[in-house]
């Protein structure tokens, strides 16, 4: 099972440039979380801070009793082995075959025999759908295949926490849909805690249990997916709708005069509450996600502290007392699935 990650008061700058300040959140054990935000808001910096590759000026990141910011370097190094990191570009060695790229962490960090390394690598290659391509060089395969190879490499040390940095970058919508399904399937199989940094709205709408958003050097919100998906916070609503009108501009934020002009202009009437698309479920034949039942108990326990729109959405999901995503349970896929179109799912190839 995955490990809970607790972030407390994290603040990071580069020289005089403040990236973000006082970020606090908890990644629940075994659940899938997404961090959204416009380009340039420090999402990748946040990932690297979680794993101890960058040192924030203030705050703590607690992972299994170790503070990834302030603990001795040897403790951070050992705890880092609990993480799997999927880089934005795959970060593969161009002169190595996919097999050797994926085997690299095992050869660097373990004393396993080559026969054992081969067994583990081939298992991970099969999980991400790359059987038959293990002998190819990164330059001989597509961008989507490189992404999956990067994910396979992130899995070889059996991580309890998986961090994915914009796994959709450079992928077309169809490949992004397959990748989304692959991430859910992976969570069903290994029950790892997962954090996906992205600005892709399809991934945000269909994959996570929890969602957050970074903007203007602050964490706007983080919590159950229903909180962000029903939020009327101007920056969140603008981002989710993909509109030009709102606080986000071409440079991260608009000036006061532009915002005042937009506020004075007539606005089209909203079509009612934003619909929440059902979350993806594991592909047929895979076990149910163990995180689903844990999340249900956790979210219902905080219900009275959530905004009314989020509370309504959660109550609708759990209206029949079932557990969405668990085959055979009453209310499977939630009552919302009866009225909203299900997203297209892939086999994870």
From TrEMBL:
Query: For the region Disordered, what residue ranges are annotated?
Result: 252-291, 318-349
Instruction: Please indicate if the UniProt record lists ATP-binding as a keyword.
Output: yes
Boundaries of every ABC transporter domain copy: 5-241
Q: Which GO terms describe its molecular function?
A: ATP binding
Q: Which SMART domains match?
A: AAA
Tell me which Pfam families the record gives.
Answer: ABC_tran (PF00005)
Look up keyword Oxidoreductase and say if it applies: no
Write the record's keywords in alphabetical order, separated by commas. ATP-binding, Nucleotide-binding, Transport
Biased composition annotated in UniProt, kind: Low complexity:
329-349
Leader sequence residues: none
By what name is this protein known? Phospholipid/cholesterol/gamma-HCH transport system ATP-binding protein
Q: Which organism is it from?
A: Streptomyces griseoviridis
